[in-house]
């Protein structure tokens, strides 16, 4: 693997046309190296775009330059630049084996979601689509949790405000009567009672909303925890599925063997096939009985489920075949 080529000292002092050619050739050379060149390519593409050096090579825009020189579509070119700008050299060089597409997806996530995904998933083993769906789930969960926390903060402030207001209508009424012992007391008392009842209703409603918000928050946190645990679980063991497939195959083949023996017209050949089939069944039965089990399991004979006992089957004769034909 070739070493990544980087900018040389004094390169910025070169004439623009020479600098453009030098950077272009360096991008092309780095493109042939291993995945660690991702960062260097992103850095140089960014330089060509920001400094407008592509014009020195006769291109009117950066997109045409990237496509004509390196067969990079607009999206691909900007992916390299985005990865370099948002992830940084250290992260890209440490995870360059993921490839530019997965790195570009990680660059779209916020740092917290990206860190959680990298910690909980083997990103190199999942598909690009699975990574995209996982990042989208983290983003949605983060937005929901943020909204829920904001709502909960507002409710707590509302509850605190209402709880600081007078709660005892009778106490307030007595204070009004004591301070304003005239005919206007009744109206003020009625207004105060109405306001306090309204405040009390708002307080109860705010408390209910707070409890609901707390419940929703706990449910969401539980869901996030379940998703994280599910993401860490190993794939389901396929042994049971393989057993079903093998058993089905053996059963189907044995039925075919029985039909084949039945359809054999030659008596001697049918006897040989019959004996061979019984030998195979005995071998399979003996092999199965030798399997070790953690507990004692009754080892029933192969013929215990209603199958005709092998020893009771009389030899095949020509007379039997004639009766079958009839």
Give a description of the structure.
The protein is mainly α and 326 residues long. The protein folds into three domains: 11-108, no CATH class; 139-231; 243-325, no CATH class. 71% of the residues lie in helices and 0% in strands. Helix 1 (16-31) runs antiparallel to helix 2, helix 7 runs antiparallel to helix 9 (185-232) and helix 8 runs antiparallel to helix 9 (185-232). It is flat, with a radius of gyration of 40 Å.
Residue-averaged pLDDT, rounded? 76
Order of helices and strands: HHHHHHHHHHHH
Number of domains: 3
SS element count, helices: 12
Uncertain segments are: 302-326
The strand count comes to 0
Query: From the alpha-carbon coordinates, what is the Rg to the nearest angstrom?
Result: 40 Å
Oligomer: single chain
Name the overall outline: flat
What's a quick, concise take on this entry?
Helix content is 71%, strand content 0%. It has helices spanning 16-31, 37-50, 62-70, 74-94, 100-108, 111-120, 128-163, 169-179, 185-232, 239-263, 267-289, 318-325.
């Amino acid at each position: 693997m070739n070493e990544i080529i980087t900018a040389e000292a004094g390169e910025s002092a070169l004439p623009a046309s020479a600098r453009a050619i030098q950077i272009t050739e360096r991008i092309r050379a780095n493109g042939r190296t291993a995945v660690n060149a991702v960062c260097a390519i992103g850095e140089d593409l960014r330089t060509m775009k920001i400094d407008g050096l592509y014009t020195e090579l006769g291109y009117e825009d950066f997109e045409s330059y990237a496509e004509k020189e390196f067969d990079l579509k607009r999206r691909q070119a900007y992916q390299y630049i985005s990865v370099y700008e948002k992830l940084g050299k250290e992260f890209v060089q440490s995870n360059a084996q993921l490839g530019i597409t997965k790195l570009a997806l990680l660059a779209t996530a916020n740092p917290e979601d990206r860190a959680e995904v990298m910690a909980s998933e083997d990103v190199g083993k999942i598909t690009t689509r699975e990574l995209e769906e996982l990042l989208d789930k983290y983003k949605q969960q983060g937005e929901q949790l943020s909204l829920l926390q904001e709502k909960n903060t507002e409710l707590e402030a509302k509850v605190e405000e209402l709880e600081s207001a007078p709660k005892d209508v009778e106490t307030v009424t007595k204070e009004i009567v004591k301070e304003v012992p005239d005919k206007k007391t009744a109206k003020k008392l009625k207004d105060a009672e109405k306001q306090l009842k309204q405040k009390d209703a708002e307080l109860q409603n705010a408390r209910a909303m707070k409890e609901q918000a707390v419940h929703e928050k706990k449910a969401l946190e539980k869901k996030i925890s379940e998703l994280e645990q599910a993401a860490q679980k190993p794939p389901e063991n396929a042994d049971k599925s393989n057993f079903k497939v093998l058993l089905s195959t053996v059963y189907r083949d044995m039925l075919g063997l029985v039909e084949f023996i039945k359809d054999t017209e030659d008596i001697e050949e049918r006897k040989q096939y019959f004996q061979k089939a019984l030998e195979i069944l005995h071998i399979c039965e003996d092999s199965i009985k030798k399997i070790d089990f953690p507990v004692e399991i009754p080892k029933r004979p192969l013929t215990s489920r209603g199958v005709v006992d092998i020893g009771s089957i009389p030899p095949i004769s020509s007379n039997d075949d004639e009766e079958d034909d009839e």
